[in-house]
Design brief:
36% strand, alpha+beta, 152 residues, six-stranded antiparallel beta sheet, 17% helix, single chain, SMI1/KNR4-like, globular
């Protein structure tokens, strides 16, 4: 069971699915249910750990918030990331460092994998600068299991 530190109340689950579909993503039921009950949730266990360029990192995150209209701070606001060539992806969370947690549909997988897009680090290939992407989890369930207590 997830422990919620804070949230912005409820949001209609059908609007969550509709928004995800507009991004080309089929979000898992666990995500849609969580955000429908705890919109913009911040979890007690909100620390992510990852390896990038052979170094260990950690950061804290919260889920993006759904609104009935697009405005600054809404989940819609974080979808068009400059320097990201992904198709079929959806930003769903933000870290304390300003990085983006995204659902990314890949290959023939029914549900998306979880990626971390670094906001201030780029890789240059063929004269094109793209933001660095870190693989975090194969799916949302694995992502949730790997979360750590924020204050450790």
């Amino acid at each position: 069971m997830l422990n919620i530190f804070t949230d912005y109340g409820k949001f209609p689950i059908d609007k969550i699915y509709k928004f995800a579909a507009s991004c080309g993503v089929e979000v898992p039921f666990a995500y849609a249910q969580l955000l429908s009950e705890h919109n913009g949730a911040q979890l007690v266990d909100n620390r992510i750990e990852y390896v990038h360029k052979s170094k260990n990192f950690e950061d804290w995150f919260s889920f993006c918030r759904f609104y009935d209209v697009k405005k600054s701070g809404s989940i819609e606001y974080y979808q068009d990331l400059e320097g990201v060539e992904f198709r079929r992806c959806m930003t769903f969370g933000l870290t304390a460092s300003g990085d983006y947690l995204v659902f990314k549909m890949e290959n023939d997988n029914k549900f998306p994998s979880i990626k971390l897009i670094l906001h201030d680090e780029f890789e240059v290939t063929d004269m094109i600068a793209n933001r660095c992407v870190v693989d975090l989890a194969n799916d949302f369930s694995e992502f949730l299991v790997r979360l750590k207590r924020g204050s450790e």
